[in-house]
Amino acid sequence: MKEYKYIFGPIPSRRMGNSLGISPIEKRSCTYSCVYCQLGRTKNLMKEPKKFFETEDILEEFRDYLKENIAMDVVTVVGEGEPTLSYDLEELIIGLKNLTEKPVAVITNGSMLVYDRVRKALKAADIVLPSLDAGNETTFKRINRPNGKINFNDVTEALVKFSKEYRGQLWMETMIVDGFNDSTDELKEIRKILDKVRYDRLYINTPVRPPAEGYVNEPSKEKLDEAIKILKGTSIQRLSSGAFFSEIKDDFEAIKSIISRHPMNKFEVKSFLESRKCKNEEEIFDKFKRDDDIEVVEYKNYSTYRLK
Ligand code: SF4
């Protein structure tokens, strides 16, 4: 059985159904190191796109994957970090679109929209999902902790510009974090920027998975309701539903491969093992505790597993 380097999933996505992930960057390379990041702290805090991998190698894997005929709803360029840091993004998106009729989506923090090259690349995607968590520079620095060369006004101006040029679906996302951006004033400032953006949907998220920093918490229900009202968005405040999938035969290795890209909580691991008719569930949970690569994080009263 072939193990993929750039492809993972499909993973149930709260917004897009069964999403096949394509990672065009090295692990934990990002322009931000968000306090709520589910991957932990960013290891490679970058300021501009660079070449990571050969596009042809990624497309070769995708061709192989398609031969397996596994159901998926969307192909998502996502990575473990910021995928628009990949210098060859346009070539990749066009290459993927030539190989499948499924929509190609890109999840981004939006910071690289300041580059013409990145805006041009993203225009080739069917769905672009940028995030906007702050309405001012101070909160931006507190919550997203960007690379020092990244300027808040430049990023929001680039987002507005892109939104007016782009013809595909633009789905915004705002992560609401207790004490960071959930005050009425902060929400109104975010709304002010959103008023200038031409988008199709706005999702409101909360840190449902273990965050990079232990002091990060979900907002209260009242604050979340207020955020939904002021921002005029849709809440996706619940864990993914649906089934995870892996091609890897060994149950333990399959989970390790999934959590290298997407942390799983205890219940997600259990239902994944049940779907594979696994007979030694307890043994696998024991192995998690012994494996030095795996971090078990206690969050919201249950264990979540992710790679260190
Ligand atoms: S949440 Fe996204 S933008 Fe923020 S550090 Fe993690 S990968 Fe980067």
TrEMBL record:
Q: Which cofactors are required for activity?
A: [4Fe-4S] cluster
Record SMART domains:
Elp3
Q: What InterPro entries does UniProt report for this protein, alphabetically? A: Aldolase_TIM, Elp3/MiaA/NifB-like_rSAM, GTPase_Obg, rSAM, rSAM_sf
Q: Which Pfam families match?
A: Radical_SAM
**Where is the secretion signal located?**
none
CDD domains attached to this UniProt entry: Radical_SAM
Q: Which Gene Ontology MF annotations are present?
A: 4 iron, 4 sulfur cluster binding; catalytic activity; metal ion binding
**Keywords noted in UniProt:** 4Fe-4S, Iron, Iron-sulfur, Metal-binding, S-adenosyl-L-methionine
The name this protein carries in UniProt is: GTP 3',8-cyclase
Q: Which organism is it from?
A: Clostridium felsineum
- As recorded in Swiss-Prot or TrEMBL, the protein's gene is named moaA_6
